[in-house]
Amino acid sequence: MSTMNRRQLLALLGSAGASAYLEVPGYASAQPSDAPEDFDFSFFTDTHLQPELSANAGCAMAFSRMPSHKVDFAIQGGDHIFDGLGVPKQRSLSLFEMYDRTQQDLSLQVHHTIGNHDCLGVYPQSGMQPGDSIYGKRYDEDHVGKTYYSFDHKGVHFIVLNSIGLTPDRAYEGRVDATQVAWLAADLNTQPAAKLIILSVHIPLVSAIDNYTPVPATPPAHHGNTVVNSSEVTQLFMGHNMLAVVQGHTHINECVDWHGVPRHQRCRLGELVARHPAGYAGGFYGSLHPRWQVVDALRNLRLPERRSTEHLDVT
Description:
Elements: H1 3-14, E1 19-20, E2 39-44, H2 55-65, E3 73-76, H3 89-103, E4 110-112, H4 138-143, E5 149-153, E6 156-160, E7 164-166, E8 172-174, H5 178-189, E9 196-201, H6 209-212, H7 230-235, E10 241-247, E11 254-258, E12 261-265, E13 291-298, E14 308-311
Helix pairs in contact: 2-3
């Protein structure tokens, strides 16, 4: 995959706000022998479903339109609900039930990425105990599916990682744990060097978010903005044909070209401007118009100039 092609993807994804990577010395750049077929897919993240801000209404409108763009599938980038970390058990379950009902409007296959707000009862104020059957990631594992996995589609290898590390003091940090690192190394070892790879992860592997935000008066106990062991993870992709990484979590519209691999950061989809009156310029938001984007992933190993974004009025 040429640098130009990767940069076309960077421009396409970056315009809607996710985080991803491009081509670097050490990453394979040979053309694959089995060139991928043309296809479109949609990436959306941080739906943050909750009834109070009409997030379900905004998402339902977006989801109902998405199939009309004839995408093959969608990737949800995490934080399906808001918030599972610190609320009572029944509240968390009701939020996931709301998400399930809303996603029925999507009418296409969705590959899910776990987010920090999808982990249930982690904060002590939730009243849940670590031994509860749905505590932490257990509900997600039992009702949504594996929290890290890979799949192939028309010549492209997709990888979804779980970047939420739950800490002993009942908090979270950005981390890809040792079990996943070993699994990822084994998964990549089965892929030819020229195989195109796209990665989805919620908490970013690489982001400039800490340069955009004020330094907190009290340093946080855990590093939650990015993955603390990102170097360990990204080194595993050396020698592979990385096309992009799509990420969520930070609610900013960002594209970081790190070592030539674009990392695209998406703004969140769903909540209304009532919470953030200024909106998010260039993201999935703007004055009561949640936005979503269809990503044209591959077109004869070139990425088209056009992009498809709809503005949906949820007033």
